[in-house]
Amino acid sequence: MPYTKVIQQLKENLQVAYRQAIDCDIRLDELRKAGHGKFVAIFTEEHGFSQSSNRFLPYVQELATEFETIQESVHTAPETIEAFVKKLAILLQTLQAFKQQSK
After folding, report:
1. Considering Cα of 92, then 29, then 53, then 46, what sign does the dihedral take?
2. How confident is the model at residue 2 (pLDDT cuts 50, 70, 90)?
3. What is the mean pLDDT of residues 37-45?
4. What is the mean pLDDT of the chain?
5. How many CA atoms lie within 13 A of 63 on its CB side?
6. What pTM did the predictor assign?
7. Residue 71: HSE in the Cβ half-sphere, 13 Å Cα cutoff
């Protein structure tokens, strides 16, 4: 596969997103119990996600499914990887911002 190093880096970043999503979802649960966090979705369609959730893990799961497709494909188009990277980046940035603001 021509993107071996890229694929490995994406996998590592996806694993980071998964671990952070678990922590952030726990914090979201705490905020909801306190009467906060009354929103419908974290991301809109404009961000490229097909999921619509008020938790982070469904977005990570969507990316994990896309990542499997990328890994299985012998000829992954650069545009596909670029779109995946954009969604992963916005997810990681949002997770980081949430962690910082919810301390």
Report:
1. negative
2. low
3. 85
4. 91
5. 29
6. 0.90
7. 12
